[in-house]
Amino acid sequence: MKIISTDNEKIKFLKKLGDKKVRDVSGQFLVENLIIIYDAISAGFLPKQLFVSEELLEKADEKIDKIIEKFPDHFVINEKVNKYFSSLSTPSGIAGIFEKQEKELNLDEVVIYLNAIADPGNLGTILRTAVAFGLKNIIVDEKCADIYNAKTISAAKDAIFKLNIAKDENLKIFGEIKQKMKIFVTSLDGEVMDDKIFQDKTFCLVLGNEANGVEEGIMKLADRKVKIGMSGEIESLNVAVAAGILFEKIYSAQGLHA
Fold first, then answer.
1. FRET pair for 220, CA 20 to 30 Å: which of 9, 90, 109, 184?
2. 117 by DSSP, 3-state: which?
3. What is the dihedral angle through the alpha carbons of 159, 161, 162, 164, rounded to the nearest 10 degrees?
4. What sign for the dihedral angle of Cα 227, 228, 231, 235?
């Protein structure tokens, strides 16, 4: 089916999905990235609806061909329609509506708790890095950027389809986690990590806000405060960079690379 009007109800809904409230109510989100959509479909996550531009369909691209093969009931759009709903400065020519992912946390494994990570790019990078190092269980609190924000998705790539992600409010899930496992928090006042700190099979590691770190209420409930050993030339690292270092240490300590 071809859609050439911005007054089309489906196109209006695509534009509305740029609003977090609409994403929350509908339980759906928009992906405007060929590679992410390709990887999601390849992994069995089919979009509810798929929109592809005429220009993109005309290109000789194996990924596009495979996407269309998996999802033949797509809508064909023109450049004007694509620009109308797209959140990108340069529309990608493809958009898929997906259902929000709901998977249960596995509390027999390491849990990563994200406290007030404000920047969508940092959040997405942390999610992608977690997948890279075999960490599947992520909790985001209500102060974090939206998981399904376009910038978060752009940075996370297909990580949102591969993780067990739970959203916490008022530390409800955190309180349950506290009863089941040790809580480690990152803190400039913490002890420099050694090679043994992450060897327990289960624990929760908390990463905090870019400017303020882990909030005091969580800090008080921590079993241990830790920090990354550094030269002393700078005080702290970007939270996404710190996450990469910490996740690699967990990956090695847990033997996830074996």
1. 109
2. coil
3. 110
4. negative
83-106: b or e for each residue (b if 16 or more CB lie within 10 Å)? ebbbbeeebbbbbbbbeeeeeebe
In total, how many domains does the chain have?
Answer: 2
Q: Which two tokens stand for residue 145?
A: 């950027």
Using CA atoms, how far apart are residues 74 and 63, in angstroms rounded to an integer?
Answer: 15
How is residue 97 written in tokens?
């509506």
206, part of any domain? yes
Cβ partners under 8 Å of residue 258, min gap 6? none
201-249 pLDDT, tens digit each: 999 999 999 999 999 999 999 999 999 988 877 777 899 999 999 999 9
Burial of 71 (0-12, 13-18, 19+ CB in 10 A): middle
Cα–Cα distance list, 73 to 12, 40, 114, 198 (Å): 19, 17, 38, 48
Q: What is the rounded CA–CA span in Å between residue 140 and residue 257?
A: 25
Q: Are residues 133 and 196 in the same domain?
A: yes
